[in-house]
Amino acid sequence: MSEYSKTTEAWRCDDCGADMVTPLFCDSCGTDYPERRGFSAFAILGLPVTYAQDDDAVEALELAIARRLHPDKWLGKGERLHKRALIAQSAVNEAFGAVSSPFRRASTLLELMEAPESPKPPQAFLIEQLELMEEIEDGVDAPRKKTLQKLIRGELRALKARLREAFLAAEAGNESALIDGRMALDRSRYWRNAKRALRGAAPE
Amino acid sequence: MKIPLQLKGETVDLVAGIDLGTTNSLCAWVVDGKPVVIKDRGGRSITPSVVNIDEAHSVVVGDAAVERSLGNAEGNLTSIKRFVGRGMEDVVEDAARAPYMVVRGTGTSEQVKIRVHGKEYDPTELSAMILGEVKKRAERSVGGRLRRAVITVPAYFDDGQRQATRNAGRMAGIDVMRIINEPTAAALAYGLDSKKSGTVLVYDLGGGTFDVSVLKLTEGVFKVIATTGNTRLGGDDFDNAIVDLLIAELSDEHRAAVIADAQWKGVLKIAGRRAKEALSDQDTTTVGLTLGDIALERAISRDEFNAAIAPLVAKTIDAVDFVLEDAGLDPEDISDVVLVGGSTRVPLVQAELQEHFDKKPHTELNPDEVVAMGAAAQAEMLARGGDNQAVLLDVTPLSLGIETYGGGCTKLLWRNTPVPVRATEGFTTQVDNQTVVQIHVLQGEREMASDLRSLGRFSLRGIPPMSAGMPRVLVEFFIDANGQLKVTAKEMTSGTEASIEVAPTYGLTDEQVEDMIFDSIEHAEEDMIAHIVADLKAEAESVIRYSRKVTGDRPDLVPPPLAVQIEVAIGGLEAAIALGEKEPLEAAMEVLNESTAPVAAQMMNEVLSVTVHGKTTSEVLGEAPRTSASEVRLS
Fold first, then answer.
1. Does B315 touch chain A (CB under 8 A)?
2. B419: closest CA among A74, A194, A66?
3. Over the range B48-72, which residues count as b (16 or more CB within 10 Å of their CB) and which as e?
4. What is the 3-state secondary structure (H, E, C) of B500-534?
5. Do the Cβ atoms of A86 and B420 come within 8 Å?
6. Which fold, B12-193+367-389?
7. Does the pLDDT value for residue B619 go beyond 50?
8. By CB distance 3.0 to 4.6 Å, which of B17, B101, B578, B605 could disulfide with B115?
9. How far is CA B443 from the centre of its chain?
10. Which pLDDT score is estimated for B9?
11. What is the pLDDT of residues A47-87, one digit of tens each?
């Protein structure tokens, strides 16, 4: 829980004192900090450890970091610095992958907070999903596809709202709310699977 | 373009961007901070992506290949890009449609081969020939050496196709700095010019490929947020739609004869393209073709053309919707629509996009040139390095993962993940005392390993005997800024480690590539001027051969005074060849070309005439009558 409630601060380089966009690497003097590579995705990006993120702000941050860190910027500055920037940028991109979409962010947070296992979804839900997948596999016509897409979108939207509430409650001290968060995330996997199946492969 | 002054033994280092297209290729470089497409002496920027191989296996590339295509249709290789880095299973339809023979690959590479006059050629090798021609022409125009370049590929190219393209560059003696996506390059060209922020959709309808990508531009940072495409849809299909209209006019007997005839196929293809181009400006066009004893005349209206291509355009709009959904965006979120590829000039395409997005697509830059320009900008940036440059954030085009027990696939990296990136995942063993783990690297979106493309496999050995489930194998995927994938597996309790740099199945081994590098070494030692003269001599000899053939084959078109004039011009050119100097060679070639021009023009009109509102071929094409024998080409 300690990591969860920790507020983030700007990192300063131990060597030159400059502000850093990520604790992994100072783009001012080129010092890297390999011992920090095990930091959480939130810490690597300097983001508050919370589910409620402004997605636009996260994206703006991604661009701001890339503008300073991207290895292409370090091409003329020697192999050693280029490699450090490459390693830092790849870790940063991995971190963004873990926090940039609501469901992935939820999954990362639940891992980080060591949320307890949730009970399996009820039989009725599983049967419903099984039937849905069978229907999709057998093929659906365009109007039915639209209906199903709408249904799935609605379900996913509701699950996102449920996740938001669960994390809010957990932040307020109610750790058992995380079980509900885990349940919502588990269910979203089924719906996202159905969404993928419905869409099929990329149009060829 | 001004040719830079050359000091002896010193040449310009040309850092280029190359758009290696299915139909045409272009080369650009940056002059005074602006990307510029390189044009040759005649003002041509396009090198047709065509290789022509005759029965003696003499190879000509580009314009020369198109020129020879009428006499040697069987050995005329177009749309080679469709086969680069592909296995037979990938290209069944394309292989059936190709006017040449595509056969299964043999030996270590599963890449298909192209059989011409009894000999098999590797598509990578053929692409290298095209790149070699592009390189040669650029060097001749700019007066420098092209050693380093950025080459573009369709966004949907998989790793095997990218690697094959990279290998083709190496074979042509080019250090390929990076392979970038064509739509990304296009956005880069636009972004550099206008320095704006927004969400851009790039609609790239090339000759043989279609791509659509969504990119975010923010203060000098480019990021592809979603991309999809179709490697079997392009402007060629619009041409084919017209061809279908044309041959529907013929009797069954004639149609069968035409379909079976390679020369007819070539002529129809060209007629289809010209009619498409005419219908971009005109409401109606008439195609008239005569070859042998079969004649064909057909008026086509734009409405008719629109109806014929409507299903194809609808397919592209489906892909637009797909990519928007992938990016989590609605049409109104798109601030700019960028058009790439000559076929985006087709009015129906622009109208459909305008309706879909409720805004006019961008057409400020030449849609044929914009990709090469963006590639040049990127090449310059990589060559210079340093700050204050646009940064291009590229993404993985397809998901990457490894095979797990039972034939499933665990994805480590999802498609559209920005690179460079690292991803790790823990695995364990399935049986007791297992000392070896197979790591099978897979690419694609499906769930089962058998449906995915295999990028390579390796073994992690020396795991200490333990109960199943005890060893902890950590697999790491690392993709660098060039998109090169390295996979490492490590058993954590013992520290055993193994890794591979993924060499795609459909590429070539390094030794194969080394064997095939046919240009770089000799080239590096050649004096630049000598090189130009040698090329000019070869070109001059081909012009002489062609002129003799024309006058010999068609005495009816060559009245005696002209015959004398041509003979004199040939004599002059032969003297210039013997002298071996640049200017006299150029001048003498010009003289001969001028004297054969009327004959060439006449032959052209006989073979193919596309008339629009009663105009002649050359008027329709907006060209002066052909002035050069070496330009008698149907492109």
1. yes
2. A66
3. bbbbbbbeeeebbbbbbbbbbbbeb
4. EECCCCCCCCHHHHHHHCCCHHHHHHCCHHHHHHH
5. yes
6. Nucleotidyltransferase; domain 5 (3.30.420)
7. no
8. B101
9. 23
10. 47
11. 999 999 988 888 888 888 988 888 888 877 888 998 999 99
pLDDT at residue B628 greater than cutoff 60: no
CB atoms within 10 A of CB B492: 11
* Closest partner CB to B422 (pick from A59, A75, A91): A91
Q: Which residues, other chains included, contact B282 with Cβ-Cβ below 8 Å and sequence gap of 6+? A: B302, B612, B613
User: Which residue among B387, B413, B414 sits closest to A73, beta carbon to beta carbon?
Assistant: B387
Query: Which residues on neighbouring strands pair with residue B288, listed in sequence order?
Result: B297, B609
Mean pLDDT, rounded, for B605-610: 51
Average pLDDT in chain B: 81
Cα(B254)–Cα(B292) distance, rounded to whole angstroms? 11
- Number of CB atoms found within 10 A of residue B81's CB: 30
For the whole prediction, is pTM greater than 0.80? Answer: no
Give the minimum alpha-carbon distance from B198 to chain A in angstroms, rounded to a whole number.
12
For chain A, give the longest Cα–Cα distance.
Answer: 63
Is residue B573 within 8 Å of residue B592, measured between CB atoms? yes
Distance separating alpha carbons of residues B586 and B133, to the nearest angstrom: 19
Report the C-alpha gap between B250 and B81 in whole angstroms: 32
Residue the block writes with tokens 């379909």: B259
Return the half-sphere exposure (C-beta side, CA atoms, 13 A cut-off) of residue B433. 0
Would you say residue B634 has pLDDT above 70? no
Q: Which CATH architecture has domain B526-631?
A: Up-down Bundle (1.20)
In this prediction, residue B239 carries a pLDDT of 93
Helix axes A102-112, A177-199, angle to 10 degrees: 140
Nearest-angstrom CA–CA distance, B547 and B593: 8
Helical pair B252-260 and B235-247, crossing angle rounded to 10 deg: 140
Q: ipTM of the predicted structure? A: 0.76
Sheet holding B608-611, edge to edge: B294-301, B284-291, B608-611
Q: What is the pLDDT of residues A110-158, one digit of tens each?
A: 999 988 888 888 889 988 998 998 898 888 888 888 899 899 999 999 9
Half-sphere exposure of A128 (CA within 13 A, CB side): 11
A71 in B contact zone (CB under 8 Å): yes
Map out the domains of chain B as residue ranges: 12-193+367-389, 400-504, 526-631
Is B297 touching A (CB cutoff 8 A)?
Answer: no
pLDDT, tens digit, 9 for 90 and up, residues B16-65: 999 999 889 999 999 998 899 999 878 889 999 999 999 999 999 999 99
Q: Label residue B245 by pLDDT band (50, 70, 90).
A: very high
Smallest Cα–Cα separation from B225: which of B323, B362, B356, B340?
Answer: B323
- Write the single-letter amino acid at B182: E
CATH superfamily of B400-504: Substrate Binding Domain Of DNAk; Chain A, domain 1 (2.60.34.10)
Rg (CA), chain A: 21
Q: What is the structure's pLDDT at B366?
A: 93
> What single letter denotes the amino acid at residue B45?
S
Cα separation, B418 vs A69, whole angstroms = 13
Q: Percentage of chain B surpassing pLDDT 70? A: 85
Dist CA B52 CA B47 (whole Å): 13
How many Cα atoms sit within 13 Å of B263 on the Cβ side? 12
Which residues does residue B202 pair with via DSSP β-bridges, in sequence order?
Answer: B213, B338
Contact B391 A73 (CB under 8 A): yes
Tens digit of each residue's pLDDT (9 = 90 or more) over B451-467: 787 777 888 888 888 88
A72, A94, A203 ranked by CB distance to B391: nearest: A72
State the amino acid at position A151 in one-letter form. Answer: L
Q: Report whether B210 contacts B316 (CB < 8 A).
A: yes
- At B473, which amino acid appears? V
Least confident of B6-10, B512-516, B609-613: B609-613
